[in-house]
């Protein structure tokens, strides 16, 4: 019984260590490199969301190319 409690504590400790490492890395990645966004509605038809209002597309917003001024003709730019 004592070994089971020690094993459970070890797994919980390992989970929180991984959690406290993974969350800052994920937040930094989504803030600095890229993030995922959903395109809904008719504003970007027919390029994105060609099915109409019921369908939605998921896109990856590359924030790295904006920081390097690597925007080319034909790119879709999202402003917040």
TrEMBL record:
Name assigned to this protein? IMP2L protease
Species of the source: Ciccaba nigrolineata
Q: Where in the cell is it found?
A: Membrane
The primary site where this protein sits is membrane
Recorded name of the encoding gene: Immp2l
Q: List the InterPro entries.
A: IMP2, LexA/Signal_pep-like_sf, Peptidase_S26
A molecular function (GO) held by this record is: serine-type endopeptidase activity
Topological category with respect to the lipid bilayer: Single-pass membrane protein
Q: Does the keyword Protein biosynthesis apply?
A: no
Q: Which UniProt keywords apply?
A: Hydrolase, Membrane, Protease, Transmembrane, Transmembrane helix
Q: Tell me the PANTHER family matching this sequence.
A: MITOCHONDRIAL INNER MEMBRANE PROTEASE SUBUNIT 2
Please provide the Gene Ontology terms (biological process) for this protein: protein processing involved in protein targeting to mitochondrion; signal peptide processing
Q: Which GO terms describe its cellular component?
A: mitochondrial inner membrane peptidase complex
Q: Does the entry feature the keyword Transmembrane, yes or no?
A: yes
């Amino acid at each position: 019984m004592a070994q089971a409690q020690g094993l459970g504590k070890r797994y919980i400790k390992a989970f929180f260590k991984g959690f406290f490492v993974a969350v800052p890395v994920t937040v930094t990645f989504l803030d600095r490199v890229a993030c995922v966004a959903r395109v809904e509605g008719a504003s970007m038809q027919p390029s994105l969301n060609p099915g109409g209002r019921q369908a939605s597309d998921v896109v990856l917003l590359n924030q790295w190319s904006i920081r390097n001024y690597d925007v080319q003709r034909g790119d879709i730019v999202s402003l917040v």
